[in-house]
Design goal:
binds magnesium ion; 637 residues; EC 4.1.2.63; 6-stranded parallel sheet; Rossmann fold; binds thiamine diphosphate; thiamine pyrophosphate binding; magnesium ion binding
Amino acid sequence: MSESNSAERSDGTDGQVSGATVVAQALKTQNVEYMFGIVGIPVTEIAVAAQQLGIRYVGMRNEQAACYAASAVGYLTGRPGVCLVVSGPGLVHALGGMANANMNCWPLIVIGGSSERSQETMGAFQEFPQVEACRLYSKFSARPSSIEAIPTVIEKAVRSSIYGRPGACYVDIPADFVNLQVNVNSVKYTECCMPPPVSMAETSAVYKAASVLRNAKQPLLIIGKGAAYAHAEEGIRKLVERCQLPFLPTPMGKGVIPDNHPNCVAAARSRALQFADVIVLFGARLNWILHFGLPPRYQPDVKFIQVDICAEELGNNVRPAVTLLGDINAVTKQLLEQFDKTPWQYPLESKWWKTLREKMKSNEAASKELASQKSLPMNYYTVFYHVQEQLPKDCIVVSEGANTMDIGRTVLQNYLPRHRLDAGTFGTMGVGLGFAIAAALVAKDRNPGQRVICVEGDSAFGFSGMEVETICRYNLPIVLLVVNNNGIYQGFDTATWKDILKFGDATAVAPPMCLLPNSHYEQVITAFGGKGYFVQTPKELQESLRQSLADTTKPSLINIMIEPQAMRKAQVNVVAKQKAEMHLYSHPPKYLPNRTPCNSESFFEAISEFGTFICLFNEYLLRNVLGMLCQVLRIAW
Ligand SMILES: Cc1ncc(C[n+]2csc(CCOP(=O)(O)OP(=O)(O)O)c2C)c(N)n1
Ligand SMILES: [Mg+2]
């Protein structure tokens, strides 16, 4: 591997350079642009050295959020961001971010300070087996053997994070390296690693895939975030339009082709999955988000064509009809070549298209009906329809929560690739503010004027809420929306909350999903100089959104009060209903009073990946709470 001497580049005085500067210079040589973290012993000097070399340093309020932010930079730019953490607890906090990045297949570098090597096993300050701890959460985890070895290890970490399936990598820097000086000429900086090599699928497999697709009666393309990461938007759009195929984005695949494209069948998601006979997966895994590719959510004989960068992914949970191993962008072009040679178009007047269109129409009508409800407090749909009306087309949407994220995803449109970040494959709450911070930094540098809209459930917001201070400190172009239903999935209004408390201490009687009703989250941002709004009506929501988007001088937070018992819309879904009934009646909740099965359709409906679970949960919640209240009332009687 070629190396370049650093003599002119390092800032060593008297021909000496510190370990901290070597770390920073090695990262700079690998084109790392952003570093997030929290300083302390022994990494403060690394952050300072990084800043001196032109790496942007963002001080966060918790390493978890810092790690989420660094990983989002990796997804958005294709170059890993760095998360810098102190030893022991700092590193442990970052593990959540590493796990999340690895699950999402996003590149990330974590640099952890660690206790001095001479004190190892002695109970040193914040001593922890960091390299071992990171192995489970990363693709590569190592400690350089000397200061001179730091550049090679950092190059390997950066390369590993972006080659093959992207992921998290860890580099451990012992405290005694940080301030130790070595001769500047003894450190060689490994050149910036090359961009990942582009691999293509076997020609025979491409040919077979095209043939399977041509013979499909009810085809469907599924576009995952792997396609977004691979910048495959142009090719996939051409394929969709040339062959007139229906497509479905996964949550973060949204925007690879705009959501308002006529071939997008997101509004008929369950129907499309359940009856497709050939499904092409572009960078989308058959995990829980896609119901494992298995019946009853799919036809038992559905033919999957899997396009993925990772060989180990091919064949997970199903036996695919065709596997196309390679870079998604390159493989899409290979497929397009087949349809260039022998053009083919799926008939737009087919029964399949008709079914999908009808289903989309009825689902959209049901959402619109809910959105138009005038009752107060507002429901989710009313809120999101008003947000959608004012959402800038090029904004980045960050979202987390359960109902907030799931319903929001169906209403809030994405028109551009890599413009949606959410709880992702790991379903992690707490990612929102870190992601928004990363997206806003990248936006500020590359698309000045672009806004980040961060749509948070009230519970989700709480996980990393103190990052509002970070947002204000760096004056980032973020509008935070907290969709406040006083709880996790659902909550109670103030009067009910007070009634519950009459029966005992909150730890004994408050349902576990409750949060304090009527919380004024907007005051969190005003504490730091941002603009806060407390809204209860559509008019207040519209006005606060208008003002927040018009004000480019400071970030804002809109706390939107909604009906605490608001739910997703009802839909007839026999599968979910059966599953829910089977589960509930074989696992009766503890407080369940004897009663006949509830036949309300609404509890058993599911339209997206959280659907079945949420339905079960709503039913569970209702039964528990009602049952518990009955019990409590009986006792009080
Ligand atoms: C790190 C983590 N902890 C806990 C959970 C479990 N969980 C799933 S969604 C959720 C919060 C949902 O409430 P909220 O954000 O208020 O959204 P809502 O459904 O009320 O709109 C929680 C705690 C999780 N997914 N991740
Ligand atoms: Mg909530």
